[in-house]
Amino acid sequence: MDFDWKYLVEVSPELMWATLVTIRLAVLSFLLALVVGLVMALASMSAFRPLRYGIWLLSESIRLTPLLVQLFFAFFVLPEAGIRLSAELTGVLVIGLHYGTYTAQVYIAGIQSVKRDQWEAASALSLPRHVTWFKIILPQAVRPMVPALGNYLIQLFKEMPLLSTITVFELLNTANLLASRSFRYFELLTFVGLVFFVLSYSASRIVQRLEVRQDRLG
Amino acid sequence: MRDSFDLIGIVMPSLLQGATVTLQVAAQAGLLGLVVALVVGSLRTTENRLLRFPLTVYVEFFRGTSAFVQLYWAYFALPMIGVRLDPLQAGILVLALNVGAYGSEVVRGALTAIPRGQLEACRALGIPTWVAYVKVLIPQAMQRVVLPMGNLAIDLLKGTSLLSAIAVTELAFAARQTVSAFGNPMLIFGLVLLMYLVLAAPIAAGARYLNDRTKRYVA
Question: Can you tell me the distance from the alpha carbon of B95 to that of A160, in angstroms, rounded to the nearest whole number?
């Protein structure tokens, strides 16, 4: 069997569009995850014990169960509860919530990586609370967060094909639709694999470079 | 309420049947993946570039593409070039190669993290090399391996749900079937999520326990 390049060029507008849809949904989900993670991180550092415990239970349950089944759950249950959302929005919400449990951990680890004496020094200088947080702690905490968040963005991006199971026409589903007409499964699915590889491999090289630079800064 | 209990009684046998398949798939892919991880991970620490290059390509390729796409490729694209796998074979193979690629990085990381001085110190003390490995080097590597391997095992267990897309009758597939037969997605999908949680929680707890136990081996 020979690889039909002409066919791929023919359908390239559809594939290009689907790639953009995939990237757009990934970015939206990740932005949501950044916000959800922040809320979860703050809640799990709260002095109110039941809240801490509830957040722990929620994030463990989300992390220990398959994203695919969570997508099914939301896709079939939300309409029954009277909440009608598009498949795309449902997907963004579920993936954003799922990855929010991961970004929460990154935030917490980042804040904990700031040495204790920074807090002590700030209080010895009797700096106000918001100055301590925004001028002392967070600037130091954010730096190690960046590569870790980058890695989760890449991981999240690779989950996007799961959205095909809830009828979202992202890259994989689009390729399947095209293949069901032309029967060019080999060309189309190889192309989809290559797109994911090129995008996530180059992104992971960027993250690696950030990590190396950070090690040097110490 | 009464109806819900009745429904649970009706769907439970097929869900449990699905969970059995899930565990079988996870166990087979896990064992195969572990072998791949150990072999590839240790070979990638050798000096031989000719050996290292294809292994690096394998690892980067599996880590760089999505597991779901790999599964589709193995099941729908491979037959086009004459390689036919049944759904279960394709699923186990893809999951094993996937977890093997991630696992090999864990193995490689653990092996390269142990300072050379450890082995040199053993030599200086006249300890035979194999004793040095069994008593000194591997126990320290264990500490670095336990938590990431536990996470990979959980990822693998969750990853078996992808096989529902190629009609392997594992837990997620059984869930969709029973929902389309009996309705009530809230109850059935909720129950299934709980079942995955029950399967995964012991792995997470076990990895944490082993992690604490192996801490004392680290110099």
Answer: 18
Say which of A1, A69, A189 has its CB closest to residue B161: A69
Alpha-helical runs (H) found in A45-124: 49-63, 67-80, 87-112, 116-124
Total of domains in chain A = 1
CATH assignment at residue A173: 1.10.3720.10
Say if the Cβ atoms of A72 and B172 lie within 8 Å: yes
Number of residues assigned to chain B: 219
Chain segment B9-49, per-residue pLDDT in tens = 999 999 999 999 999 999 999 999 999 999 999 899 888 89
Q: In this structure, what token pair is assigned to residue B130?
A: 């194999």
Residues of the domain holding B37: 2-217
Question: How many separate helices (H) and strands (E) can be counted in chain A?
Answer: 10, 0
Residues of A within 8 A of B68 (CB-CB) are 159, 161-162, 164, 172
A158/B67 CB distance under 8 A: yes
pLDDT band at A1 (very low <50, low <70, confident <90, very high): low
Smallest Cβ–Cβ distance between A68 and the set B82, B161, B197 belongs to B161
Q: Do B47 and B204 meet the contact criterion of CB atoms below 8 Å apart? A: no
Exposure on the CB side of residue A37, measured as CA atoms within 13 A:
24
Contact residues on chain B for A70, CB-CB shorter than 8 A:
193
CB contacts < 8 A (A, B)? 116
Domain enclosing residue A108, as ranges: 5-217
- Residue A184 CA to residue A188 CA, distance in Å, equals 6
> How far from chain centre, in Å, is Cα B35?
11
